[in-house]
Write a structure and sequence with these properties.
The chain is mainly alpha-helical. Helix content is 65%, strand content 0%. 30% of the residues are buried.
Length: 262
């Protein structure tokens, strides 16, 4: 299977990568109006985080088009790390933001380049021990998919098997190349959905439709309950991905929020 074969270049993964990249751009624009509490940032810091993730996904798309599956997994690990960092930062801010203190020092120092965030293991432990995420952590731990994804990413990063090194040479025939592509497609989707569930459990208002703010900016009284309306692009993602791929995540999110998910 060469990178130029129709079966490879026409795989659905390329359509899905375009969708994920567009979704993060929409989300970046959508959350811009929510200032990040506990920091000196003028705009929501996730505006920049989501655009960075968009760039990583576009990079995965580019290297895959050249048949470089090994590099794609290295970038997937970066995407996975970004998801954990994004979740940790938002959860830490929510846990430590206090009206009596202007800034959440650890996060604000990170924003200003004065201090690095904790190592990935420590951030993961913080997420795993959160009282806010108890039910979500049970669902994440119910199977080994995320441990397996992490292992595949690390195997590719460190060339743990010679065959993985060869996955970066798209012109070399390898019968298992297409199976690796299908696995990567599922792994990217699972990491995307992990970001979705972390993000909306921690900050459910990120799902908010622009209608409520639009009414206020126009000097009009927003319709009743409009503060709970969900943005159409988020409902579309829920219908097309979250409900079908992770109905357990969807149920937990629906049960955990006042937002009008359907």
């Amino acid at each position: 299977m060469q990178s130029t074969d129709d079966k490879y270049v026409n795989n659905e993964i390329f359509t899905e990568l375009k969708y994920y990249a567009d979704f993060y751009e929409y989300l970046s624009d959508s959350v811009m109006c929510f200032p990040t509490s506990g920091t000196s940032a003028i705009m929501n810091i996730d505006t920049y985080v989501f655009m960075s993730i968009k760039g990583t996904i576009e990079s995965i798309n580019l290297v895959l088009k050249d048949g470089q599956l090994n590099d794609a997994y290295a970038l997937l690990r970066k995407f996975y790390d970004s998801v954990l960092i994004n979740s940790y930062v938002n959860l830490y801010i929510n846990d430590h933001a206090d009206k009596s203190v202007m800034y959440v020092q650890k996060i604000n120092d990170w924003l200003k380049g004065k201090e690095a965030l904790p190592r990935m293991g420590e951030m993961t432990k913080y997420l795993n021990n959160s009282s806010k995420l108890v039910e979500l952590n049970k669902l994440i731990d119910a199977d080994d998919r995320y441990k397996s994804i992490r292992k595949r990413c690390n195997d590719n990063m460190h060339y743990n098997y010679f065959s993985l090194l060869m996955m970066n040479e798209g012109k070399v025939y390898m019968k298992e190349r297409y199976q690796h592509l299908l696995q990567l497609k599922q792994d990217i989707k699972d990491v995307f959905l992990l970001n979705i569930i972390y993000m909306f459990i921690i900050n459910d208002y990120y799902m908010l439709s622009s209608d409520y703010v639009d009414y206020l900016e126009a000097g009009m009284t927003p319709p009743e309950d409009s503060q709970y309306w969900v943005a159409p692009f988020i409902q579309e993602m829920v219908d097309n991905f979250l409900k079908t791929e992770r109905p357990d995540f969807f149920k937990l999110l629906s049960d955990s929020t006042s937002m009008h998910l359907s």
